[in-house]
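Q: I'm building a small set of examples for a reading group on sequence design. Run inverse folding on the following structure and report the sequence directly after it, with nothing in between.
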């Protein structure tokens, strides 16, 4: 029964195993991770990431290696509906980040912010401290460093000295997920780590998050393009993504019933 329940909580969309247990249950899992040193990893793929994973075995395996995979964006939910998946609620990565900060605030946990340009993580920590006064922002570091070798070792050592319970890694996909997988076991104090893309830019005030009305009508992606025209590549991904989803839907709804040809006698 337990294995069946666990299986039911997974919704596979184009090869990615999303947690389909619902946002409340996902929050409970994250809270449970913070009650003990477990080093759990949370990844937050959106439509663009989902599309890239569909055409890359390596990236798909990377995302599926996480302990919790949450659907970041309305496009993922739409794909789930079209493909008869169990996902019904989006859970934006930045919202998960805020939830984790609220838990950290309740228990005075230590949080380290990694990523962004020089000074962005520091500004984010300062602004977040006003909202979450009991969180101990134990350290920050920009994201422009070599991700292996001596320079990376120095960053890992700096994080270790800070003894964080939670680590936000904001290096962008797939760099942040690869970095987490290669380094999280080297940080024994970690209870939970999560890849959060451009969240530090929002928390630092460098970029405004989409107004609530945009989020409610699933147009947060449009706001991002207006704020950051360089994100137009995301928009250009949509037609290909929709074609892939429709093709997969046809495969699910109309599976081939043809039998293999009978071998000729004699």
């Amino acid at each position: 029964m337990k294995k069946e329940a666990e299986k039911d909580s997974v919704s596979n969309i184009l090869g990615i195993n999303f947690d389909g247990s619902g946002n409340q249950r996902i929050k409970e899992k994250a809270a449970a991770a913070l009650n003990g040193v477990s080093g759990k990893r949370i990844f937050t793929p959106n439509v663009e990431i989902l599309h890239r994973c569909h055409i890359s075995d390596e990236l798909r395996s990377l995302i599926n290696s996480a302990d919790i995979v949450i659907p970041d964006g309305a496009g993922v939910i739409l794909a789930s509906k079209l493909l008869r998946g169990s996902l019904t609620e989006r859970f934006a990565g930045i919202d998960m980040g805020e939830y984790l900060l609220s838990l950290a605030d309740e228990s005075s946990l230590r949080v380290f912010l990694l990523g962004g340009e020089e000074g962005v993580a520091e500004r984010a920590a300062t602004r977040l401290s006003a909202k979450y006064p009991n969180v101990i922002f134990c350290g920050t570091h920009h994201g422009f460093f070599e991700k292996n070798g001596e320079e990376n070792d120095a960053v890992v050592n700096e994080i270790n000295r800070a003894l964080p319970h939670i680590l936000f890694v904001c290096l962008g996909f797939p760099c942040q997920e690869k970095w987490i997988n290669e380094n999280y076991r080297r940080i024994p104090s970690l209870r939970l780590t999560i890849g959060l893309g451009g969240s530090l830019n929002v928390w630092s005030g460098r970029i405004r998050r989409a107004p609530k009305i945009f989020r409610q009508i699933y147009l947060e992606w449009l706001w991002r393009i207006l704020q950051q025209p360089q994100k137009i590549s995301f928009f250009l991904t949509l037609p290909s993504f929709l074609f892939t989803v429709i093709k997969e839907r046809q495969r699910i709804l109309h599976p081939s019933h043809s039998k293999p040809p009978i071998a000729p006698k004699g």
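DSSP finds 13 helices and eight strands in the chain.
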